[in-house]
Amino acid sequence: MVTQLILVSFFGDRKHHKVRLKTLLITCMLQSLIGSLHHNYCLTLNKFNMKKLSFILASVVILFLASCSNESAETTDATDAKKDSAAVKTEVVPTTSANFANVDAMVEAAKKEITAISAEDLNKMAEAEEPFLLIDVREKAEFDKGFIPGAVNIPRGLLEYRIAKTSFWEKEMIYMPKKDELIVVNCKKGGRGALAAQSLKALGYTNVKNLDGGFKKWELSFADKVEKNVEASTDKEAVAEDDGGC
Fold first, then answer.
1. In the chain, where the domains are located
2. pTM for this one?
3. Interval 77-98: pLDDT, tens
4. CB neighbours of residue 135 within 10 Å
5. CA 235 to centroid of chain Cα atoms
């Protein structure tokens, strides 16, 4: 009875039915063995043998408890591993999914997630020589015809690939931007810039702004602060490129 109490108390808080069943079975076996030995041999065994027998039985109980504990721990670890695996699979699945009627709807949705900056505020920052990086995401042909002084040209389709590419920034002779550095992006009218700012935000850049109205707004407001790549703009391919998207 004492053995049963010890085993039940040890596994009382376990939720594994196999362990409980083994506990009850071994308890019954030990009780039967002790009863049989006591009935048949208690008169012939001396005190030394009784102590030896008690030691052996205690060792059997301890070994059994250790075996059950290991099995229970392995079962718990397996269960936790399954939960962790399920959690990882859940994280891979996108939390949101949106279908847009057209690109204009996509751009409008992007603008709600980013921060815009006016041409006037950008000009003030430039005049005050505040530190920031200006990225023009238009195609090279558009960029060569006219751009904001100091802008670095990274076409929209290459932005995610070049923004953290050391060799690109070394070629531009500019330090590669840090994640918390102020980055201003511009396109022709603001649409591609909004999508570009959204992508940079998704990549972990925390201080990104989109030029409201794009280069067109800047050109109308500060026509005297526009530079051109004259040699490239005379290229036939550059002259043929005129629409420039949004």
1. 2-92, 103-240
2. 0.59
3. 555 555 555 544 434 333 345 7
4. 23
5. 44
